[in-house]
Amino acid sequence: MEREDLMATFHLEQSATIRAPREKMFSVLTDYENYPRIFSVFKSVSNIRRDETRVSFLLDGLAITDRLTPPKLIEREADYKNIHIHAIFALDEIPEGTKFSFSADITIKGFLRFVTPLVKRQFRKVIGQNVADMKKAAEAGINAESGN
Description:
about 25% helix, alpha+beta
């Protein structure tokens, strides 16, 4: 059993309006093979395993499992060393296109918890860049189906 006094947890949220249909957004978010091309902060993806509602893969060493509810929701669990992430990607249809909502609970274990403010700041930066990259890809039509 893990000791709670050796852990720190924080919550992050971000949303954006994307001028693209929800199905296009879901397609971009589940185009795992092209993550390094779509998202500028990622360099490699490997070991992609899929079934009907679940995808597991390694993204820059981060072990990720996504539970898919097409085309509206992705629930993500990710682990890397002493960090655990539980995230929700929600896609809601709106007149302008799609409202993308991201929320995550991030737990830091061990001595890394002492630098939680630095880790939180870095996560905010990465999430902001990922949302900008995703928006650009969806609005430009960059994904596996378009071949761009």
